[in-house]
Design goal:
about 160 residues, mainly beta, Beta-clip-like, 4-stranded mixed sheet, 12 strands
Length: about 160
């Protein structure tokens, strides 16, 4: 699949599948321009490839846009040419971030309706979790941006 081209339309950044605009979750978000089928590569999360040492420096400076690529390299998505950085976290996301052939893709984990906000689980750990409150609006919202596999289930 080719990487969607970034286009300008009505003053807003867009790709073939995603338009960006105000989000009810937080700031700017990405929204489906048309129905998207499960398994579709929605948008590539692009950025500067950096060493683990440089990644640590940037993380300590509160850069939230870094993805692990491999044992030696990370991806810093805080660059202007990465519109995927505007996608919001959700505790019940409709996409997953997947490492495919050394690229990070945001991939639909279910069918997504036209106009629906594109979200994924940021996968944050417990460190400084109180600095990352979540108000995503999902029925299962954990209250903080913490990876789903680290969340403690609520008691019934």
């Amino acid at each position: 699949m080719k990487t969607p081209k970034i286009i300008e339309s009505t003053g807003h950044l867009e790709t073939a599948l995603v338009r960006f605009g105000p989000s009810a979750i937080e700031g700017t978000g990405g929204f489906a321009r048309a129905p998207i089928s499960r398994g579709t590569r929605v948008i590539e999360y692009k950025g500067e490839r950096i060493s683990k040492a440089e990644s640590l420096v940037r993380c300590e400076a509160s850069n939230p846009f870094i993805f692990n690529l491999d044992g030696e390299t990370d991806l810093d998505g805080s660059v202007e040419w990465n519109p995927a950085r505007f996608l919001n976290h959700s505790c019940d996301p409709n996409c997953d971030a997947e490492l495919i052939e050394n690229h990070i893709w945001i991939v639909a984990n279910r069918d997504i309706a036209e106009g629906e906000e594109i979200t994924f689980d940021y996968g944050y750990d417990w460190e400084d979790y109180k600095d990352h409150p979540c108000d995503c609006g999902a029925a299962n919202c954990f209250g903080f941006i913490v990876s789903a596999d680290l969340r403690i289930p609520k008691k019934l």
